Amino acid sequence: MTRFVARRLVIAVVQVAAITIAVFLLIRALPADPVATRVGFNASPDVYRKAKADLGLDRSTLSQLGTYLGGSGTERGLLAGNLGTSWASGSTVASEIGDALPITLELISLSFLLAGAIAIPLGMRTARRPGKALDKAVFGYGLFAGAAPEFWWGLMLVFVFYFKLGWAPAPLGRLSPQLQAPTQRTGAILIDSLLAGRLDAFWDGLRHLILPVVTLAFVLSGPIMKMVRQSMTRVLGSDFVLYAQAAGLPPRQVSRSTLRAAFGPVLTLTSILYGFMLGGAVLVESVFSLGGLGQYSVKSVLEFNYPSIQGVVLVITVLSLVIYLVLDVLLALLDPRARHR
Amino acid sequence: MTATAPTVGHPKRPHRLIAAARRDPLLTIGLCIVALSIFLALFGTLIAPKSPTEPTGAPSEHPSLSHWMGTDASGLDVFSQVISAPRTDVVLAVSAALVSSVLGTLIGLTAGYFRTWWAEVVMRISDVLQAFPVFILGMMLVALSGRNTGNLIVALSLLYTPIFIRLTRAEVLTQRNRSYVESARAMGNSEWKIAFRHVLPNSLAPSLIQLSVTVGFGILLTAGLSYVGAGVRPPTPEWGLMISSSANQLILGEWWPSVFPGLAISFTVFGFAAVGNAIERRVGG
Amino acid sequence: MTDVSTPSSAVDQEVVLEARGVCVSYGEGTNAVSDFDLRIHRGEIVGLLGESGCGKTSAALALMGLARHPGRVSGSVLYDNRNLLEMSDAELRDIRGRSIGLITQKPRQSLNPLLTIGTQISRVFRAHNRVSKEEAQTHAIELLEAVGINDASRRLTAYPHELSGGMAQRALISMAMSSRPQLLIADEPTSGLDVTIQAQFLDRMWERAQATGSAVLLVTQDLGIIANYCDRIVVMADGRVIEERTVREFFLSPQQEYSKRILAVQSADTTTNPAARRLEGSDALVEVKALSKHFVLPDKRRLQAVQSVDLSIPAGHAVGLVGESGSGKTTVGRLLVRLLEPDAGTVLFAGRDITALDAKAFRPQRARMQIVFQDPFDSLNPRWTVDRIVREPLDLHGLGRGEPASNTTHAEKQQRIAELLDLVGLSPDTRNRKAAALSAGEQQRVCLARALATQPEFLVLDEPTSALPPAARVEMVKLLADLRRRLGISYLFISHDLWTVGQVCDEVAVMYLSQIVEQGTRAQVFEHPSHPYTQALLDSVLLPDPTDRRVDRERKDLAGEIPSPVDLPAGCYLAGRCPLVEDRCRAERQELVTMGDGRSVRCWKVAPATRSAS
Q1: Cβ of C439 and B3 within 8 Å?
Q2: For residue C48, what are the CA distances in angstroms to C55, C59, C225, C239, C478?
Q3: Any idea which of B7-11, B71-75, B220-224, C227-231 has the lowest mean pLDDT?
Q4: Which of C521, C453, C527, C461 is CA-nearest to residue C490?
Q5: Residue B186: which of C370, C377, C433 has the nearest Cβ?
Q6: Distance of alpha carbon C250 from the chain centroid
Q7: Which of A255, A249, A246, A243 is nearest to C128 (CA)?
Q8: Which residue among A207, C21, C209, C570 is buried most deeply as judged by most CB within 10 Å?
Q9: What single-letter DSSP state applies at residue C282?
Q10: pLDDT confidence tier of residue C275, bands split at 50, 70 and 90
Q11: A301-312 burial, b for 16+ CB within 10 Å, e for fewer?
Q12: Which helix (H) or strand (E) covers residue C302, if one does?
């Protein structure tokens, strides 16, 4: 097991390095002009040249890469753990991502909990009774929920629950403007408000999170449900479940074995979706102005803010790979056949 | 299972698709939507009753007989925009899906069949690409190289090629171990001939299913990129852009400029997904 | 012979289980089983015979009130005067696994992949007996030992995927017999196993049933199994019982037309060969010298598939290559037509070393040698019609015998395709069909037509009959023997089925774990086998003859499992299983020694090596 994890870690490190370097080269190879965006298109050549040198873009790409990785002078590089400084704000990329990441994690974790709570029981039930009305309804839902863009669902929910019914707060952030934010510790508003003992902030934060979470869960539950159904159907029709019945095993044992055997593929899909959502929640974050990692990356890209782009990509990649690693370990614990791979 | 009961010989008839559609309502609906969207992609701008890029009415008019879906905040006719948008959305998604499927299938075939060192390199690159946050990569490619249709197609194709490589390669790996491949070799076919004449046609099913799904993804991604301001530039009629520019009005109760393009996206993506699903049930089941 | 009409009169007449009018249906459409009636008495072994797809598995499961998801069972199954199909789930559970045990066709899939064998056996035992976990574990070890698993306590911690098919089947039977059931239902329990393992397993099952007094319902397609192990036979076709008799009676005089036909098929003897002759003078068409081949497994271990094999096939002769799984016989076949490259050794074809040619120069030679594989459906491009499949070799090589392909006109090809289909006995209207629309027998004929298209001189037949149902198998054997006579073609006939080899071949080579262990004429090898492995192999053949049952005679059993070719024993490869084993066998590699009568044997006890002289 240790060797297995070690091997996966080595591969992950290589992948992170490859992606980092690829992104570094790619953004400099594309025809964008970050200098002009900063000084304006009518700036004099001198001003332009000076700005270019300030950003370090006057040097060769390889030398820029060297600085980015190894640092220069007193400034530490990526290898020493420094993600660099944002070209737009002047603060460190690490601190900006540190603010944005918990928001996204909180949003998508809650969404996955809700999606799982809907999808797993429904998927199991439809697998046991294929072809029934519920099965057909769920099939149609899966096809349609995935067809509409999630930002549109979000907007529709805002229209109904904010404009028409007035039940939800305006989609303008994580807390009502008149409320003071609780002291930041984890960055996740629900946890922070509880830690600070601010129940008012907790409820307000929860109210602001409901619509975005529902929107994401709505989109996520489709594929999860499909996978639960598929996986359960396969296991229910398998020889070993039939044999367990033939051997007269108690029903609780049989259904526990069934669930365990069906769980692997569902876990795999969920992990992949979770990794995808780290950057993919951007549209919902935008609709509700939550200011998470996705929105931060949009801002960085549109501002041609290279260090920030680089930082976001790095953080998302590392997180995804960590998730996949944990997934592989869990799968190996779950299924003895996976231990030898 | 080998077939024991000899089935009736089925001579090829050109109307197989129509016959299949009659038996399968979901496929019928899907095909109608796909046909309509392709029709609009070709002729939408011509049959639009009003200009999709010039104000033709007062700002924010309710749907009425002269403006079937109302007008947006700048006075543009929503209906004309909705039916002109496939020129961007559908063309873009279909071309990207075609480019990536052809490219991915060919790379997947060679990587899976010949298993040479460079095939390994290609697989590793596509692995790295897949571990990449898709939306951010797409946004980066488009925003940094210029927000126009051409760049969007290139970006989308690049994003979706790894899926096709992976699917085709997996299928090729199982097909290459089947006895008909060995028979072809024993008969004296060259390896290239075996790969292209025998293995390729038998490895297309997963890509075919994925093709339809990818068109849907492409439309969603195009719209998403526009929504955050990293897609095509206004005033190009494009569904995501329409929703984005009307999102602020929605909070004030003007639902029509964002509801209709959203529905258009949903129906189109649903149509392609339904066709993909029908192919899957036919080929895979 | 006078009492044969009363079924198993020696056994007491108490009925264990009775099925009346049982139907099984999966969704809409016709029933998989309809009006199935069956009565099983205490202690008797009933054989349920039928071809695949006739509903015998569904019927067998229905006797436990079971159907595969989403099937339904109706009718009545009386056990202990109570109808199983009307019982509550709890009552059913009490009977399943305690009073009625089951072993299935796919033992490895029937075991839970996520749990160890030990856990699974003790769970089943604890579901029906009030014992502690520790007691159940101890009992599990005893059960495994009872079915001949030596290191039982170590096997308890194994997962199903770590077991061989034979081992998994034994774990399953120890589970099924753990509560000493009144009835054991065995659904084609040996269908995936090698012949020696099959015999071993059925012997164990028979012994266990005798020891526990259980009745057995043995579902099978094989008349040999019925004849050797069963008291009574029930024949099924199309979901119905069509005949029910004692086994002796059945083999003497089957009543139904269908039964007569399958009986005729399985005990057919089509030997069309003249007595095996050895053309000493004639040149060998194929001459193989010291051929070796190994593979490297994904985990980097080395698998020795073929080890210094010598083989000589004279023109017009058929040589049989016999062996069980892992023996390397299939690899030899592929090496001979150069679908694999050997590590060492030469393959002379018509005097020319084909292993020395480069790939491109060799390609035209392929017209002269062809191969037919085991799985006919898998061997045909599923998207092509028969016409296109048979035309492919003609497009590549023309009509064969050296002419360039471009000389052959379209009309000539069409003519040739028609000839070929006729030659293999296919009707002309198969031409426009695809493989999926043909039966397995027809598919294999298409493969044969394709192989013969370019008039090859040599054909490798790699288990060409193993994937076929019994009737088609006999037809195929007849066809192959006939084609050889008419076309004067040479065969290397690879098979694990000794009967088919005997029908087609003049000479036989027996392979065990990468080596040839015995080689000689058909009569020498089949009538007077001298290597202990050949003897055991012949002894494991279950002949469809109830008057000479395996369970009644003394057996020349091989012990244990076939060793893995990754981890070959130090001395004689058979040493671990051989009944004659001595210390010298374990220490010494064996040489293939040619004896006075022309046969070769690899065993120092039978053929003392001349090697000691050198």
Answers
A1: yes
A2: 11, 10, 11, 12, 28
A3: B7-11
A4: C461
A5: C370
A6: 24
A7: A249
A8: C209
A9: S
A10: very low
A11: bbbbbbbbbbbb
A12: strand C302-314
pLDDT at C322 over 90: yes
Q: What CA–CA distance (Å, rounded) separates A232 from A268?
A: 14
CB B198 within 8 A of CB C381: yes
Phi and psi for B144 in degrees, rounded to 5? -80, -20
d(CA A295, CA A174): 14
Contacts of C463 (CB under 8 A, 6+ apart): C330, C373, C374, C494, C495, C496, C497
When comparing pLDDT for B266 and C403, which is higher?
B266
For residue C368, give the DSSP letter. Answer: G
> Which ipTM value was assigned to this complex?
0.87
Residues in chain B: 285
pLDDT: which is higher, C262 or B126? B126
Q: What is the DSSP letter of B231?
A: S
Angle in degrees, CA A67, A72, A74, rounded to 5? 145
Cα distances from A200 to residues A162, A181, A189, A204, A207, in angstroms, run: 20, 10, 12, 6, 11
Greater confidence (C558 vs C24) lies with C24
Is residue C519 scored above 90 in pLDDT?
A: yes
In eight-state DSSP terms, residue C299 is T
Here the tokens at position C157 are: 């911690």
CB within 8 Å of chain B, chain A residues 65-84: none
The token pair that represents C560 in the structure block: 């244990």
Looking up tokens 């008349």 gives: C223
**Cβ of C447 under 8 Å from any chain B Cβ?**
yes
Beta-sheet pairing, C369-372 with C458-462: parallel
Amino acid in position B132 = F
Closest to B195 measured CA to CA, from B209, B170, B175, B211: B175
Quick check: B135 and A304 CB within 8 A? no
Nearest to A227 by CA among A161, A162, A272, A257: A272
Q: Between residues 33 and 72 of chain A, which touch chain B (CB distance below 8 Å)?
A: none
Q: What are chain A's partners, defined as 3 or more CB pairs within 8 angstroms? A: B, C
Is A12 in the B-facing interface, judged by CB distances under 8 Å? no
Q: How far apart are CA B178 and CA B199, in angstroms?
A: 10
Residue in B220, B229, B255 closest to A159 by CB: B255
Question: Residue A301 and residue B243: Cβ atoms within 8 Å?
Answer: no
**Burial (CB count within 10 angstroms: exposed 0-12, middle 13-18, buried 19+), residue C484:** buried
Contacts of residue B264 in chain A, CB cutoff 8 Å? none
| C416 pLDDT higher than 50 | yes
Closest CA relative to residue C178, chosen from C213, C204, C142: C142
Say which amino acid occupies A302: L
pLDDT computed for residue B11 by the predictor? 43
pLDDT band at C402 (very low <50, low <70, confident <90, very high): low
Residue for token pair 């690693």: A325
The answer to whether C134 faces chain A, any CB pair under 8 Å, is: no
CA–CA distance, A331 with A267 (Å, rounded to integer): 8
Residue C78 near residue C59 (C-beta atoms within 8 A): no
State how beta strands C232-237 and C240-246 pair: antiparallel
Q: Is A178 exposed, middle or buried (0-12, 13-18, 19+ CB in 10 A)?
A: exposed
Question: Rounded CA gap, B273 and C133, in Å?
Answer: 52
- B212/chain A closest Cα distance in angstroms: 12
Q: Tens of pLDDT along B26-72?
A: 888 999 999 999 999 998 888 888 888 888 888 878 888 888 888 88
Which residue type occupies B241?
L
Q: Do the Cβ atoms of C173 and C103 come closer than 8 Å?
A: yes
Least confident of C129-143, C334-348, C536-550: C536-550
Cβ atoms within 10 Å of C260's Cβ, excluding its own: 13
